[in-house]
Amino acid sequence: MVVAIVAVVVAQDVSSAQGETASQMRGVRAVDPMPAEPTGRRFYVVVGIDNYKSWPRLHTAVSDAKGVAKVLEERYGFSAVAPPLFDGRATRLQIESLFNDVLPHKLREDDQLILFFAGHGTTRVDQVGDKQVESGFVVPVDSPADHEKAWSSYISLKGLLDAVSVLHARHVLIVLDSCHSGFAVGSSMSTFRGSDRYEAVLSSRVSRRIITSARRDQLASDNGPIEGHSLFTGTLIEGLDSGRADMDGDGLITSSEIGLYLQQAVGRSTNSRQVPDFGSFQLDDRGEMVLSIKNAPREKQSSEAPSASSSDDSEQPRSGDVSGAKRSRELGRNLLTEKKYSDAIDKLSESYQKVPNAQAAHETAIAYQDKATLEARSKDSSKSGSDFAEAYNWAERYIAFKLPTDERARAAALRDELTGHVAILDVSSKPEPSDIFLDGEDLTLLGRAPLRRAVAPGSHLVIAKRQGFHDAQTRITAILGQTVATDLTLKPIEGQLLVSSEPRGAHVVVESTGEELGGTPIDRPWPVGKVQLIVSADGYVDMTRELTIREDKPAVFDAKLQQAAQTVATLSVTGQPLRASVRIGATSYGEIPTSLSALKPGKTRLEISAAGHDPWTGEVPLEAGAATRVSVALTPTVKPAWRGWKWIGYVGGGTLLLTGAAVGLAAKSANDQYWADPSRSNLDRVRTLNPTADVLMSVGASAILATALVRWLWPAAATSRADVTIAR
């Protein structure tokens, strides 16, 4: 079973505004309009798990995640919004932190998001009154085995969609390649098949889309025709890389086209047993993510500036407020002619924000240059420095478009002309990416490291920020005509975990994951948050405690273990679900996890129970001077199927079989009579009885075989279980 959740934040793929083709300005000709890249940023994040701790190993999950990341980076210029989570890093805590902590901090309103998760998926059926409620789950790397049914260790697909739907991004696309992933397109989600998906207005509306590799009752293949990839993800990568996902051949790929392409290509594939599905989820406003095939670069683009655009005039703009961008640009040009530079900058930058286009970028650079030159003449050097820097950065945006050779040379000349008036700041960080702020977090967000920007000359405070890390900052002195390079190193936010014990050398284990931390004393850094530890030693009663790790104060666990008396026994009970009640005989002994001492040696009847779960009851040996350890896993209660159905199948089938045999004997008798007296009536009787006997016997035999087959294939109901060990 493979789950692939692709999470990519993709800026809206819109086309540039139409502009005048023959105008000249300051020696640089305004270029013909071209389809533009998105106004927001393009990101992705991928999760892939092959090597599970308790679940069966997968073979293509990690390669699927890497393959999707590769085609999105190299073909469409996306960037990773967060480091990938592969194998051991894809724990439940890390995945939930990605949705609840990292992405809300990273994303902005005009960004677009695609999530990719590859790993196991599972389902649960709950009985609510006379209805059955089905739920789907994503399985992190540290989840217990399926038969333990530790649902709290899985990630609910409904909860995942709730968290993703409220992210600060205009467009979100989730791709699930998993067994039963169709649960994500349930009654709370609306399927989208509208023919208006190519309308330009949809690119400005919010979209929340999901594509699943299989319907809710289907399994997903872990292998496909593309080596190293599952059937679904291999088809997805091929469709994006080759452009086959462009179903109508217009050079644009929408999220709905991707879903339709996968539905047809995977569903019709040889030996395919899965049919993908696609739809929308919470807060969707029938918007669309739009990717341009013609404009897709073969090299990774900067997340801060639009990429080169095609010069093919035949491709018409498909998205963005083209007419509004054109009006703003015309007003900006008129204001620039009147030398109203501040107003011109407002209108020209407004045009660029509506639809990125080379003309607006060029003319904004000119407006900032003229404004800075005028300020320099009036000796307002503080303002002129920052405006020259803005002019340089807008010239860089202009050059980022795919321009004719002569235009590119003139654009480069404009940038070189500005170089002597600005200082260049080249920022990198460890780790990357990180958000770079200039002169304080509340003042200027330069972009995401690594980056290269023009700044005003003088002293600047450069700050790098990243979720889960301490801020890093440095002060630099920017000098006209020179490049200042700085590398900022961010340190992770951790607290200190201190564990000691009496006796020394006790064994310490993380209760939720089973991770072994070694023997006491332990003094090590640990990520901030909560952790539950078990301290144990031979001949002593186990001790369990939940600690809160904080950055400003060490978390201390001083375990004074109680020695197990040689005349009494001890018992510790751990497992899932937490807070399950523990009873010995008729006496209650608290909740899981618990440790009991001074128990009478011998066999005792132990009962573990929890609401909504099947209880476990069994005899547990208690030995004097030894510690009995019970690890229990209760399964959720499922209403058993009516057992009388099999007798209906057997008895009904047997009755039909016997009736058919009797009719067959009557047919044989009629046949003998016909040969003795070949009359018309005897022939009709034979013709009636023979097929009747055949039908009755065939149906009866089929009913018996079908009943036996269903009983053989019917999955055995999971039962609660417990592992009992004795430490002497």
Provide a brief overview of the structure.
By secondary structure, the protein is α+β, with helices and mostly antiparallel strands. The protein contains 12 helices and 37 strands.
Question: What key attributes describe this structure?
Answer:
Serine Threonine Protein Phosphatase 5, Tetratricopeptide repeat, single chain, 728 residues, Immunoglobulin-like, 4 domains, 30% helix, alpha+beta, Rossmann fold, disordered N terminus, 37 strands
What does the secondary structure layout of this molecule look like, with pairings?
Blueprint: E1 6-7, E2 24-25, E3 28-29, E4 43-48, H1 61-76, E5 79-80, E6 85-86, H2 92-106, E7 112-118, E8 121-128, E9 131-138, E10 155-156, H3 157-165, E11 171-176, E12 207-212, H4 231-242, E13 252-254, H5 255-267, E14 277-280, E15 290-292, H6 322-337, H7 341-354, H8 358-377, H9 381-400, H10 405-419, E16 423-430, E17 434-438, E18 444-449, E19 451-455, E20 458-465, E21 472-478, E22 483-489, E23 494-502, E24 507-510, E25 516-519, E26 522-527, E27 529-536, E28 543-549, E29 555-560, E30 569-576, E31 581-584, E32 587-591, E33 594-599, E34 602-609, E35 616-622, E36 627-633, H11 645-676, H12 680-713, E37 721-727
Parallel strand pairs: 4-5, 4-6, 4-7, 7-11, 11-12, 16-22, 23-29, 30-36
Antiparallel strand pairs: 1-4, 2-3, 8-9, 9-10, 12-14, 13-15, 16-19, 17-18, 17-20, 20-21, 23-26, 24-25, 24-27, 27-28, 30-33, 31-32, 31-34, 34-35, 36-37
